[in-house]
């Protein structure tokens, strides 16, 4: 089959061979995410037309005003995963605690847990800036058949079996890895089908884009300030949309570095380890880049809590290594 007409569904089946011992659950899990992404994409694209934007009147654990689409996306991803009885637990930015999922017979025989940010960057929805879904998949470590535990979620990023994101932008793309490279699929809305549009995505070792919120510049540690100065001395382009998925997706395609450093007021920065930094770190490393918290590889960080924050510097290998020499 000519690769450029490969659908996501066909690709998942074809890649099933990469998991000789898998019973097809991971494939079914990816198909569930594919369905949820299509449903959320349709609503995001209608956001300006349907009274679905604006505050939902509640706050999430972040203390952020939940947008209606935040809640909608969270419900859709949870529902599609639960309905197909594929996972034994879900952790979401929108839920204070993790969700334990039993089968119809009360058993917990499913072997995967999913961590997700169902609609990252949602504060950008009303101004029509690209937003995204980020997901991270682990094999449970607690005994099969028993209720899922927090330990199943607090695993190092190196244990991820899959990670990916959906970007709801000028087109909707689903990008993911199962540890054998990164592939991108673009949704054809007329057919409701994701087609392989970006096979074997790689991030250039060098780039000339730096992405950081310079409004926090005065609160950065000196090494970060010095590196930003280095970028400016070399006439790199400053590109910062304020929507993680859009910023990192652009930098993967064009080369660049994304930074959310710690500040005086937020020493651990803003981004969440388990469902923002770890999935992107896996994707970026699989694409040939690097991801660090400034001291260690993101994927090696030992998690301590579900919503913990870490500083993050990720993107083109040589740019991240140059930054590390400034710290
Ligand atoms: P700041 C959006 O709220 C988000 O979580 C990411 O999508 C984005 O990269 C970051 O926060 C922007 O944060 O502090 O620069 O506005």
What does this molecule look like?
This protein is an alpha+beta fold and 327 residues long. It folds into 2 domains: 191 residues, Fructose-1,6-Bisphosphatase, subunit A, domain 1 (Fructose-1,6-Bisphosphatase, Chain A, domain 1, 2-Layer Sandwich), CATH 3.30.540.10; 118 residues, D-Maltodextrin-Binding Protein, domain 2 (3-Layer(aba) Sandwich), CATH 3.40.190.80. 30% of the residues lie in helices and 23% in strands. The protein has 8 helices and 15 strands. It binds 6-O-phosphono-alpha-D-fructofuranose (P6P). The site of 6-O-phosphono-alpha-D-fructofuranose has 9 residues, from helix 6. This is Fructose-1,6-bisphosphatase class 1. It catalyses: beta-D-fructose 1,6-bisphosphate + H2O = beta-D-fructose 6-phosphate + phosphate. Its cofactor is Mg(2+). One of its GO terms (molecular function) is fructose 1,6-bisphosphate 1-phosphatase activity.
Question: Which SSEs are present, and which pair or pack?
Answer:
Layout: H1 8-15, H2 25-46, E1 55-59, E2 65-67, H3 68-83, E3 87-92, E4 99-100, E5 112-120, E6 131-139, H4 150-153, E7 162-168, E8 172-177, E9 182-188, E10 193-198, E11 209-211, H5 222-233, E12 237-238, H6 244-254, E13 257-260, H7 273-286, E14 290-292, E15 312-315, H8 317-326
Helix pairs in contact: 1-2, 2-3
Bound molecules: 6-O-phosphono-alpha-D-fructofuranose (P6P).
Residues 120-121, 123, 213, 242-244, 247, 270 line the site of 6-O-phosphono-alpha-D-fructofuranose.
């Amino acid at each position: 089959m000519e690769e450029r007409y490969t659908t996501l569904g066909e690709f998942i089946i074809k890649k099933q061979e990469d998991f000789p011992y898998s019973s097809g659950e991971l494939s079914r899990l990816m198909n569930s995410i594919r369905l949820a992404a299509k449903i959320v994409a349709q609503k995001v694209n209608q956001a300006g037309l349907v009274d679905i934007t604006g505050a939902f009147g509640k706050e999430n654990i972040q203390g952020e005003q939940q947008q209606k689409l935040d809640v909608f996306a969270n419900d859709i991803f949870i529902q599609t995963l639960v309905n197909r009885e594929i996972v034994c637990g879900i952790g979401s930015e929108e839920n204070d605690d993790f969700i334990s999922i039993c089968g119809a017979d009360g058993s917990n025989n499913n072997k995967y847990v999913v961590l997700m940010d169902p609609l990252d960057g949602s504060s950008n929805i009303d101004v029509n800036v690209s937003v995204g879904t980020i997901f991270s998949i682990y094999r449970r470590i607690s005994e099969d058949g028993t209720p899922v535990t927090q330990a199943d979620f607090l695993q190092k990023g190196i244990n991820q079996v899959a990670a990916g994101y959906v970007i709801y932008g000028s087109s909707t793309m689903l990008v993911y890895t199962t540890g054998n490279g990164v592939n991108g699929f673009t949704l054809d809305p007329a057919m409701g089908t994701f087609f392989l549009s970006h096979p074997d995505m790689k991030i250039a070792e060098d780039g000339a884009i730096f992405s950081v919120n310079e409004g926090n510049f005065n609160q950065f540690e000196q090494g970060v300030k010095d590196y930003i100065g280095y970028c400016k001395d070399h006439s790199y382009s400053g590109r910062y949309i304020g929507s993680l998925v859009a910023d990192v997706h652009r930098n993967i395609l064009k080369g660049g570095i994304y930074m959310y450093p710690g500040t005086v007021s937020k020493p651990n920065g803003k981004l969440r380890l388990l469902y923002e930094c770890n999935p992107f770190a896996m994707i970026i490393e699989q694409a040939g880049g690097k991801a660090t918290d400034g001291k260690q590889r993101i994927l090696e960080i030992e998690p301590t809590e579900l919503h913990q924050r870490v500083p993050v510097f990720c993107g083109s290998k040589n740019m991240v290594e140059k930054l590390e020499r400034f710290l």
